[in-house]
Amino acid sequence: MKHPKTFARRAVCGLLALSLAAAPSLSGAVLASDNSAITKQETVYMFLAADGSLKSTTVSSWLHADSGVRGLGEPTSLTDIKNVKSETAPTLKDGVLSWDMDGNDAYYQGASDTTPPIAVSITYKLDGKDIAPADLAGKSGKVEITVAFKNNCRSSATVGGVSREIYTPFATTAVLDLPTDTFQNVKCSGGSVLSEGTNQVVTILAVPGLKDSLGKDADTLKQISDFSLQDTFTVTAEAKNFKLGSVVIAATPSLPLDKLKGDISLGELSSGLSQLQSATEQLASGTQQLSEALATYSGKMEELDSGISDLSAGAGDLLAGVTQYTDGVQQLFDEIDQLLPGLEAQMGQSGQAIAQDLQNLAGKGQTASQEMQDITQQMGALYQQILAIKQADPSADITALLGAFGALKQQLEEHGATLTALGQDMQTLATDAGSMQTDLATGLQTAKEQLAQAEAQLRQGSTDLRQGAKDLSDGAAGAKDATGQLSGAARTISEKSGELDQGMNTYKTTGIDPAKGQIDELVGDADNLLALKDALIAQSESYQSFAGSPEGCDTTTAFVMKTDEISAPKTEKKGGESKKAEKKTGLWDRIKGLFS
């Protein structure tokens, strides 16, 4: 890393380079009457006392004209003007400087007593008390160095229908070199401190007068940016044997303002926030509706869960009834299988006894038919439960339940029809027993065949019926578990949607709405601030020259200031001979050398 003095030199020179870079090039300069470009660069050297008061001013200028400088008239406020490149002296008459020499360039210096646009004041304190710079040399303690800038270049302008004082914006920087063997714990309010090795460099940047130009609008600028409006800066340090080299200050009115000349408005931001606010209101309304709908959905899911529980219980009851029925059917055919051999053995007995037996069988058939009717009634109740589920939640899928119910119902109807037909056959046999004794053997054989066929169908049907009832019961139990989980998930979704609705409402009321209100409040102030911006740009562009320049000349001006050093008086050698200080090239000499 470079030595801090080198850094200080580059900081000042960098600002001067900025001023030169910001100036239009020769190709963009204003043309004189003979259509030749005229440019001028002037550097104003201001020599200051340690307290910042002005001691003398020297202006170094470079004048260039494409068609030559001979005969070119240049108004000037300088005195003691000297040509620094040749022996040819300029002519100064009635405040107009002219050159009688060949060439396109003239390099010259002169003195000026014109009040500079930027004034500097530097005050000092030791341990909290004011102290003169000369009295501070060699002292130790807590030191405060306050650097204040004052802008002397201003004019009146009308902004927003009101007349205001607008100061020409000068970018100003100050550099203080504070060696670590003298200064410790260096701090600067509003400035930066670079510490490197045995040196510390304090750099201060300011635009003097800007705060006064803004007036009450300065607060608006602070709200929408972090731009510094300080004109006064204080450096604090612990000093030992105080001594201070020259404070170097540079300033330029040539600022890169092109990017600020376009239209800038907060209206678009306000409009964008309005759209965002509207969208947020719609979103908040949507989340509220979603929360309400999900709460309803959760309630319906509770009803569905309850209905499925009832269905599961009904399916269990149906399975028990079907099991009882199929057991009865099996018992019936077991008794029939035991009765037929006896009937065959008692063929010779009276037809009345046979009729009676058949009558008893018919009665059992009616009992079985009655049980089938009871089961049919249970099926009807079960069907109403399934319909109740669909009514509670139209979105519920009961297709599988209806399919199982339909198949079971069809089987019951077929079995019922078979029992009915069987009972009728038995009744007919009992009624006609007297007249059919002669045909008993044949009828009995026919009955056996029919019974055998019916037995096979009923036994198979009973097996299918029991399996169907079991499937229905298992399906209802599975549906109960699934709807229980679905009901829990619906409650969770409803709760989370409520949280989302609350969060969106908080976001709208504490985020978007206040932000929109703040931006709306700032828009009017910011528009006034933008009008001030235009006035500041016009003021900056109106600054032409410090010492004067030819008509139509494009002039770039930079100010470089240097204070006296603060140091203890030099000691004398024995014998009364003064100790001769070594001559060395200092920071100020190097800066001047850049422009000579």
TrEMBL record:
The keyword Signal applies. InterPro entries: xxxLxxG_rpt. This is Uncharacterized protein. Residues 1-32 form the signal peptide. Residues 459-491, 564-585 are annotated as: Disordered. Keywords: Signal. The keyword Ribonucleoprotein does not apply.
